[in-house]
């Protein structure tokens, strides 16, 4: 690819529509086409690639997103650092709609998704204890707090298959396990980035309380209309945090993230 970028962002046109000289790039990958054309622009002197993970018209449900193609396309363009904003539901009373959570852990409850680039012939593994880039997490916390937004500096996201929401029983189980938020897209996006040695950070915007929180004062089960309403109210705040992060982000990949892949061969 001739076009080289430093940073990749999984987000729709709301993140770049105000930027000048936005270019479109079609990227081919061994894993099929990515979710959409990649939009490239300069932000704070850095070349940034924006890709809507659900497609520009939100036509791809979570279980149909081509995660491997999306991550590979970002890498092909040169990105070494990825920002992955996402809408999430809260599993805990103290995490409220409108809050931001900077995840440090995930629990995978998906199935059937292509979740690795490594299928042999050499056994290849990544370290999984700390899946999110600590350098970018610190930057995300600082950028969010600087804008007066309530931010939870750590959090565990449980990733469900979708497209349906959880039953009350499932949601209560997740809450009782001590997990903080729920989402449908964080896995395998984060681990695929790690397999390619890329820094990855998630910025979670809480749009609702999940079904298991029903019974709290003023809390109703999750519904799509409420999710969209809160998401629209907070689009500018998410945009502001991401742009602030890009302006402050150092170049290149951090040492810890570049050392995640290990290979072993047994003769």
Total E-strand runs: 13
Q: Pairing-aware structural class of the strands and helices?
A: alpha/beta
User: Strand-and-helix sequence, N→C?
Assistant: EEEEHEEEEHEEHEHEHHE
Helix content: 25-40%
Q: What is the residue-mean pLDDT, rounded to a whole number?
A: 90
> Considering the protein shown, what is the CATH homologous superfamily?
Nucleoside phosphorylase domain
Low-confidence region ranges: none
What is the count of DSSP helices, taking H or I runs of 4+ residues? 6
The biggest beta sheet is recorded as:
11 strands, mixed
Q: What is the CATH level 1 assignment?
A: Alpha Beta
Strand content: 15-25%
Name given to the CATH architecture: 3-Layer(aba) Sandwich
**Measured on Cα atoms, how large is the radius of gyration?**
18 Å
Distance between the termini: 37 Å
Task: Explain what this protein looks like in three dimensions.
The protein is of the alpha/beta class and 267 residues long. It has a single domain, classed as Rossmann fold. It contains six helices and 13 strands. It has helices at 67-76, 134-145, 168-176, 186-195, 224-248, 255-258; strands spanning 7-9, 23-25, 38-43, 46-50, 81-90, 100-101, 105-109, 123-126, 151-152, 156-160, 181-183, 199-209, 261-264. The strands form two sheets. Strands 1, 2, 3, 4, 5, 6, 7, 9, 10, 11 and 12 form an eleven-stranded mixed β-sheet that branches. Strands 8-13 form a two-stranded antiparallel ribbon. A hairpin with a 2-residue loop joins strand 3 and strand 4. Helix 1 (67-76) packs parallel to helix 4 (186-195) and helix 2 crosses helix 5 (224-248). The longest helix is centred in the C-terminal third of the chain and has 25 residues, at 224-248.
């Amino acid at each position: 690819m001739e076009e080289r970028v430093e940073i990749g962002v999984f987000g729709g046109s709301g993140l770049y529509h105000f930027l000048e000289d936005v270019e479109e790039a079609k990227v081919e990958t061994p894993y099929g086409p990515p979710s959409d054309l990649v939009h490239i622009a300069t932000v704070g002197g850095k070349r940034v690639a924006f890709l809507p993970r659900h497609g520009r018209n939100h036509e791809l449900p979570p279980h149909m997103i081509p995660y491997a193609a999306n991550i590979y396309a970002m890498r092909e363009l040169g990105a070494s650092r990825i920002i992955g904003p996402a809408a999430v539901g809260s599993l805990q009373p103290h995490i409220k709609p409108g809050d931001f959570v900077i995840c440090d852990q995930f629990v995978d409850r998906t199935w059937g998704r292509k979740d690795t680039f490594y299928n042999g012939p050499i056994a290849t593994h990544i370290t999984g204890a700390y899946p999110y880039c600590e350098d970018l997490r610190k930057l995300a916390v600082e950028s969010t707090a600087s804008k007066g937004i309530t931010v939870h500096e750590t959090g565990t996201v449980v990733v469900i298959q979708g497209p349906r929401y959880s039953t009350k029983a499932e949601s209560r189980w997740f809450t009782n396990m001590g997990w903080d938020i729920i989402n449908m897209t964080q896995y395998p996006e984060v681990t695929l980035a790690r397999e390619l040695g890329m820094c990855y950070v998630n910025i979670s915007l809480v749009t609702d309380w999940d079904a298991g929180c029903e019974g709290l004062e003023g809390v109703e089960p999750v519904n799509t209309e409420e999710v969209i309403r809160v998401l629209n109210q907070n689009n500018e705040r998410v945009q502001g945090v991401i742009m602030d992060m890009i302006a402050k982000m150092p170049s290149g990949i951090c040492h810890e993230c570049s050392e995640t892949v290990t290979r072993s061969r047994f003769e």
